[in-house]
Amino acid sequence: MATKLKRGFIKIEAELCKGCYLCTSVCPLNLISVSDSLNQKGYYPAQYNEKGIEIENHLCKGCALCAIICPDIAIEVYRG
Amino acid sequence: MGKKILLRGSHVIAEAAVRAGCRFYFGYPITPQNELTEYMANALASLSDGVFIQSESELAAINMVIGVSMTGRRVMTSSSSPGISLKQEGISYLSGQELPAVIINTMRGGPGLGNIAPAQGDYLQATRGGGHGDYRTIVLAPASGQELADLTRMAFEYADRYRMPVIILGDGMMSQMMEPVIFPDPIDPKSLPQKPWVLDGAEGRPSRIIKSLILDTSAMEEHNWKLFRKYEVIDREVPEMEQFLTDDAHLAVIAYGTASRIAKGAIKRVREMGLKVGLLRPKTLWPFPKRKLLEMSRTITNFLVFEMSTGQMLEDVKLSLEGRRKIHFYGRPGGIISTPDEIAKVINNVYFKEGLERE
Amino acid sequence: MKKIFGRPKSLKDVVFHYCPGCGHSIVHRLIAEIIDELNIRGKVIGVPPAGCAVLAYNYFDIDMGEAPHGRGAAVATGLKRSLPDRIVFTYQGDGDIAAIGTAETIHAANRGENITVVFINNGVYGMTGGQMAPTTIIGQISTTTPGGRNKDRDGVPIDLSEMLAITNGTVYIERTAVDSPKNVIRTKKAIAKAFRVQMAGLGFSLVEVLSPCPTNLKMSPVQANEWIGSKMTTYFPLKVIKDTVGKL
């Protein structure tokens, strides 16, 4: 009996990010870190580390804790 | 048109407001205008769409007025001098937000707690904005029971037409006097035209904002000039002044409200003695009837300003006459009510001191 | 794959001016989500405060009317008495509601006005640069309490929500926070319940939200949230302060 695990991914809109890094502190799987390139506002935005990995191999479960705490609605969450 | 009713001044204002379609009143008790508040409590309780709240302060009342006015309905508050001071913040906001409202000030002795007797010490407060910022409010000065009814009706119409607060400047004497009054027919508030700017929930339309905050300085400047242009239009359309026995007058008394009633009595007395004296009675204190006054100064050489204060309308008279004629002043502040005889003596003294001709 | 989290419709497509990590942004989003979910955009009228959120009307796509500083509860009273079937809420900071606006707040509550008050408590006056607020805690440094708030000079922090619970006019008062995702979810539930209390015509409801002001606390957003969780909640415990309506 194989149950399909929920997998998810997030999109962080770098230009909306103000570098508060609350998302990095709440992700239970440490999938968000700080980018080393500035956005237009002059912040180092948060970045999601699973870009380029196949979704079946994502650790992200789409719990959305990052999006819930993000003040600037810079994160969209997808789950399937 | 109704029949003649004998009614106390405070009650006249309240009845006139209800008949103008006002269904919202917020106020706090203060002598000498409590009869107005109490009348509104009764009148609005008996109307299914009436709302009366005795607010916790005059400050709360003017803010409740702001809330109702945002929804486009006719609304009124009233107080007396110290309470009107509390409302200045709200009146400034109403002006910046361009919201209609009617505010009744039944003036009493001041400054500070003052006393409860009639006075005219709030003229500058009413006509110079009173609160902060570059604004004016229309100020109406009734001088009889009938005018309390008529000008209260006009106040609501001006407030709606020009989208601004309108003040009725009465005093303790006006409010307690009983005179026969004929009221106009009542207006059903539902028959009043819909206002296109109100807040009532953005169902089926874009959302609206009513505010006075304009952080961009160029936009703020434009808003201030927009208000100014509105006031210029009002200055052309609204000023009103009664002329009493001025056609052949050498001297005119200038007075408003209760002071004008006393002055009329004095003028009748001195006319019997052959003095050519008349009365000029502004009915609108802002906009002040300055052009009419200037016109009168072609034939009238002396003006005697009589106020129940130390001289406030006096400043507007001086500004209007631009130094062309002699201006005299007689004032009794603190709640003193002069007699016609007393004013007749004052007129006499000025008349003879100036060497004016008698019949 | 489907999108399970995005921008609510009742927020205009405008970037928030609030500081990084500011709680206002979160609560704005929660209120907009609630308005979407209850489908009441066409019936809501909001009253913003004076303070950083004075520009709330730039964000919410609903009718909004400005009140003078602190007078939100009185303006909301006028709005609700004129339009009893609309949903009227105020959004006020700690100075707005518990300093300059205390009388209007207490009396609207005492009259049982059927409005909803969202009280953003960040323990400081943000917009004016970080002065003491009525809810600044003892020892907390602000620009007008440079040595820390002192009980003898400045009094103790005011627990307005507990005071309002005493009057019969209030029916639902809860204190929450937005310092963690769990608390953000709790805050949304509380504000949604407060709106439903109003929609059921039950009386005055208020939700106090402990919210971070990292700029004036002079901390990072993560530190500010930790401060709320460990220090601020000792003065302002998170709990249902009053609930006479039960499950709604």
UniProtKB/TrEMBL annotation, chain A:
Gene3D superfamilies attached to this UniProt entry: 3.30.70.20
Pfam family, one: Fer4_10
InterPro entries: 4Fe4S_Fe-S-bd (IPR017896), 4Fe4S_Fe_S_CS (IPR017900)
Occurrences of domain 4Fe-4S ferredoxin-type (ranges): 8-37, 51-80
PANTHER family per record: FERREDOXIN SUBUNIT OF PYRUVATE:FLAVODOXIN OXIDOREDUCTASE-RELATED, IRON-SULFUR-BINDING PROTEIN
Protein name per Swiss-Prot or TrEMBL: 4Fe-4S ferredoxin-type domain-containing protein
Provenance organism: marine sediment metagenome
